[in-house]
Specification:
about 375 residues; alpha/beta; Enolase-like, domain 1; TIM Barrel; eight-stranded parallel beta sheet; 16 strands; globular
C-alpha cells in the first residue's frame, strides 16, 4: 500500500504594493501616476508558497485595489483545502462564486500555478507549452506632443528597443503628427505600432489609419470603443494597417465573437482582463483555430505579473509578439532579484521552477489579509 500525500492550499496571504511611475503615463482614457497592486502568496501544508500579482484596471475592467481585495476575501476561503494540482477545479470554484473580478482571480490562480510548478520542478513556460525560450517586447510611449514623443523614441531605440508602441486617440490630427515625427526621428528600420485605447470614432479611425499607412505602421490597437464590434469590423475592412482588438476581448467568449465577426487581425491578451492564465490559454486557442495571432500585453503590473506574462508568451505558439514593459516604468519594482530582465527589448522566462527564482522587496509589501491556518 502506498501513502499518497496530497498538496493542498493551507494558507493565503494578501499584500498591497504601491508602485510609483517614473513619469505620468497618459493614454486616451486618462493619466496615471501610480498603481497599488495586490501580491498574493499561496502556501501548502509544508510552507512552500507560490506568488501571484494583479493590478487594478478601473478604466478597462472596472476594478480598483479595494474591489479586488473584496473579491479575494470572497474567493480565498473557498480555495483553502483544494488540491493545488487540480487547477481546473480552482478555476471552476472561483467562477462559481463570483462573476467578473478578473484581477482578483488572476492573482490567486497565478500563485497556485506557481506553487504547483515549483513542487513539480517545472518552469511555468514549459507547462504552458514550451514553444520558445525568448520573446521580444515593444516599449510604449504615452501621449505627448510630437517633438517630445520623438525624443523618447530616439532614447528607447538607443537603449536597444526595435519596436515602439505609440499611444494615440486624443486628437486625430496630432496623432498623425506623432507618428510622422517618430518615423522621421528613428528611421525606417524600427517597427511602429499605435494604440488608440478606444479614442477614435469609426470615421476618425479609418481616416487616421489610411494617413498613417505611409509611415509603415504595422499594427493599430483598439481604434474604437470596446463594445462596438461592428465598428471595429468596419475599421478593419477599410484599414490598410492590421487592426488589433484589446479592450474588446476580456474573455474566451469575447474572443470567439471577435473572430466570428472578423473584427480584428490580431487579439491582445492581458492577464488582468482575461482573469488568469487558464483563460488566457483558452483565448489563444480560439484565436489560433481562427487563424488570428495573439499579442500578450500588460496593464501597469510589476515584475511578478510580468514574469507570468513572459512565461505565457514563451509557452504558447500563437502568441507572436508582446507588449510587456510596465515594470520598466516603475521608480521601484517589487521584484528585486530574479524576474525577467529586459535586454535590448528581449526577455527570457525567469530561471527556476514555477514563475522562477523571484525575490521580493518585503519593505514594499503591506499585509492586508490572511486566510487559512
Amino acid at each position: 500500500m502506498f501513502l499518497v500525500i496530497l498538496m493542498v492550499v493551507r494558507r493565503i496571504e494578501v499584500y498591497e504594493a504601491y508602485l510609483e511611475y517614473k513619469e505620468p503615463f497618459t493614454i486616451s482614457l486618462g493619466t496615471s501616476v501610480s498603481s497599488t497592486d495586490l501580491i498574493v502568496k499561496v502556501f501548502d501544508e509544508e510552507e512552500n508558497f507560490g506568488l501571484g500579482e494583479t493590478s487594478p484596471a478601473m478604466r478597462i475592467v472596472g476594478e480598483s485595489t479595494k474591489t479586488m481585495e473584496a473579491a479575494v476575501a470572497e474567493l480565498a476561503p473557498s480555495l483553502i483545502g483544494l488540491e493545488v494540482s487540480r487547477i481546473g477545479i480552482v478555476e471552476e470554484t472561483m467562477d462559481r462564486i463570483t462573476l467578473g473580478n478578473s484581477g482578483a482571480k488572476l492573482a490567486l490562480e497565478m500563485a497556485i500555478l506557481d506553487l504547483m510548478c515549483r513542487k513539480s520542478g517545472l518552469p511555468l513556460w514549459r507547462m504552458l507549452g514550451g514553444y520558445r525560450d525568448e520573446v521580444e517586447t515593444d516599449i510604449t510611449i504615452g501621449i505627448k506632443k510630437p517633438d517630445e514623443i520623438a525624443k523618447d523614441a530616439v532614447r528607447y531605440v538607443e537603449n536597444g528597443f526595435k519596436i515602439l508602441k505609440l499611444k494615440v486617440g486624443v486628437d486625430s490630427v496630432e496623432d498623425i503628427e506623432r507618428v510622422s515625427s517618430v518615423r522621421d526621428a528613428v528611421g525606417s528600420d524600427i517597427r511602429i505600432r499605435v494604440d488608440a485605447n478606444q479614442g477614435w470614432s469609426v470615421k476618425q479611425a479609418v481616416r487616421c489609419l489610411n494617413e498613417m499607412y505611409r509611415y509603415d505602421v504595422e499594427l493599430a490597437e483598439q481604434p474604437v470603443k470596446w463594445f462596438d464590434l461592428e465598428g471595429l469590423a468596419e475599421v478593419r475592412a477599410a484599414s490598410p494597417i492590421p487592426v488589433m482588438a484589446d479592450e474588446s476581448v476580456r474573455s474566451p467568449r469575447n474572443a470567439l465573437r471577435v473572430v466570428e465577426m472578423r473584427a480584428a487581425d490580431y487579439v491582445n491578451i492581458k492577464l488582468v482582463k482575461s482573469g488568469g492564465l487558464l483563460k488566457a490559454m483558452k483565448i489563444a486557442s480560439i484565436c489560433e483555430a481562427a487563424g488570428v495571432p495573439n499579442m500578450v500585453g500588460c496593464m501597469m503590473e510589476g515584475g511578478v505579473s510580468i514574469a507570468a506574462a513572459v512565461h505565457l508568451a514563451a509557452g504558447v505558439k500563437n502568441i507572436v509578439t508582446t507588449d510587456l514593459d510596465s515594470d520598466l516604468s516603475l521608480v521601484r519594482d517589487v521584484v528585486v532579484e530574479g524576474g525577467s530582465p529586459c535586454m535590448n527589448g528581449r526577455r527570457r522566462p525567469p530561471e527556476g521552477p514555477g514563475l522562477g527564482n523571484l525575490r521580493l522587496d518585503d519593505e514594499m509589501l503591506k499585509p492586508v489579509m490572511v486566510f487559512g491556518d
